[in-house]
Structure formats: C-alpha cells, structure tokens
Amino acid sequence: MWAISHIIILYAATLLRGTSGENGNGIGSHVNNTQPLTVELFHSLHRIGAPAVSPDGTRVLFTQVHYIEEVNKSATFISMVDIASGETVQITEDRAGLSFNNPMWFDDATIGYMHNGTLYQSPLDGEASAVFTPPVDISSVAFRAPSLLTFIASVHPNSTLAESRELKRAAANRRDSAQVYTNLWVRHWDKWMTLEKPTLFAVQIDRKEDGWAVGTETDLLQNMPLCEDPLVRWSVEDYTVDLQGEHVAFVVRRPGHDMAWSTDVDIYLTPTSASQPQLLT
C-alpha cells in the first residue's frame, strides 16, 4: 500500500508538472490529459523533497530530483514557491550529476543549501558564497538565527570531525578489512555496521566582513549512555531545534548491547551548548 500510494502521488505530480504552463517548474492548476504509467514515465517523475518555509511564512523552498535517461544520471535542484500566488521559480542549476540539497533560510531574503559537501548561503538577488566546509560529510543541516548551525555527521566515538576524518583515512589505508563484532547488531539491512556513529553536532557561525567564522563543534551526544563504546552502534534518526536555538530534541534508538532485539525508539532533549541529554519518553 505504501508503494502504491507513493506511485499515485508521483504520477499526479508529473501530470500537474506537464500542465503547469510555460515555466514547467512542476506545479500546475489543472490536468487536461492523461497517459499510461510506463516504466519510462515513472523514472522521469520529479520527486519532491521536504519543504523549508521562510521565517515570514510567505515562501517555501523544496528540492526536486529527477532521472535523466540519456546520461543515466540524476539531478537534484532547489525551487521556491510563493505561497499566496503559487508561482514557482528555479533557484539552483538543474543538470545531470549535480546535487543541491538541504535547503534552508538564513533570513527572509537569504537561503542556504548544501552542494559538494559545502554549506552555501545566497541572497535571493545575489551570488552564493561558502559558509562551512566540514572535514567529513554532514547531513540534516539546520540554521537558527542569529548564529547556530546544527547537523548530523558519522564520526568515531568521542572524536571531533577532524579527528574522525584522519581515522577514516587510516582505515582506508589498512591492508585488511577484518572487523570483530561482539554484539548482534552487526548489519542493518544491506549495510555492515562500521565504527562511525551518526552523531548530532552544534556549532556557532558568525558572518564577518571577509567571510564566515566557524567555531568549534559541540558533540551533543557525548554523554549519551554507552556513547564511548564503539561496539554499540546506535544512531540519530531525526531532530528539531527550538525557535530560540537553545535546545534540541532528537530521535534515537536507545543505546544498548541488545539493540538487535529491540525496536525501542526514544526522544531525548539537550541544550545546544553542551551534551546534557535528558530522556523524555
């Protein structure tokens, strides 16, 4: 049922996109033709990402992903829709092999997004500039005015981003790939567990005349139970920051040596300035 419902939604989105007028940006007001759902049509559908609403509540950023059969690659680009008028404009380049994702708002006139591992900010009427290039890949990036940045990164236990980068490089140069497991959660679906854990971080960023100043990141999960045990491979699945940027609530499988036998998922709360996780559920 899940797959069927998503196919129907995506097919409807494609039909709307096909009747959206000259701009072809993926949003239309009516459907005036139908066609069979073929494999080729299914793979051409634009998949819509989660919305990011502007602080003043008038506009929404979202990603669109589509497959380009001729070159066997996908493209991910960011669009913006005006809530009142429904007018949609394309913000970033739409080209095979390029990916612009994780859209966010710095303020009502400035957006941000991730591209090639770097966080960029761009005025709606100006040029983009780099804000933060972390040592390792990050995801689920969020900004809270005036200067708080939060994100998830897979790092080694009790390691900074830079330290984890060096550990990953050393592991890549090993002459063997042996791994010892002492608990039963050794593989999640089709991926073997590694020593890295998806971990929640916060960092202060401040705009200066010559660019952006990025502070030292804070590991917000450092004091989670069994955090320093590299063989307990829990991971953060989702999080949200309060409007003041003072606290963050995150969803995690409760750490334990018997995690393979448990589906227990909990919500923790911690200040964004230090790791003081409090179990809420």
From TrEMBL:
Species this protein is from: Coemansia guatemalensis
Keyword Transferase: no
Record keywords, A-Z: Signal
Keyword presence, Signal: yes
UniProt-recorded name of the protein: Dipeptidyl-peptidase 5
Signal peptide range in chain numbering: 1-21
InterPro entries linked to this entry: 6-blade_b-propeller_TolB-like (IPR011042)
Gene that this sequence comes from: dpp5_6
Organism domain of life: Eukaryota
